[in-house]
């Protein structure tokens, strides 16, 4: 199994039936670093996702991309908070 393959939520590449254009759009959306409007839109998708908690769990150590509705900076802050 490919890592993360169990995640079949709305943002998963597997949700797009191997359509490269759709997969690319998903990557662009969830890996935006500067555009607050795009980041907010990605987070709104996460808010409705059935695998959000699992995605966040898997993505806690990731340094890039929106994972489980959180940016890398938000996940870093969460890790620091949890360690306290």
- Please report the number of helical segments: 4
Which structural class do the helices and strands define? mainly alpha
β-strand number: 0
Largest sheet data: none
H/E topology pattern: HHHH
- Tell me, briefly, the overall form: globular
Beta-strand content bin: under 5%
User: What's the overall average pLDDT, rounded?
Assistant: 80
CA radius of gyration: 13 Å
Query: What is the first-to-last residue Cα distance?
Result: 35 Å
**Fraction in helix:** 40-55%
Poorly predicted parts: 1-6
Commentary on this structure:
The structure is a single chain. By secondary structure, the protein is mainly alpha-helical. The chain has four helices and no strands. 17% of the residues are buried.
Question: Short summary of the structure?
Answer:
With 84 residues, this protein is mostly helical.
Key attributes of the depicted protein:
84 residues; mainly alpha
SSE order and pairing:
Blueprint: H1 20-30, H2 36-47, H3 52-59, H4 72-83
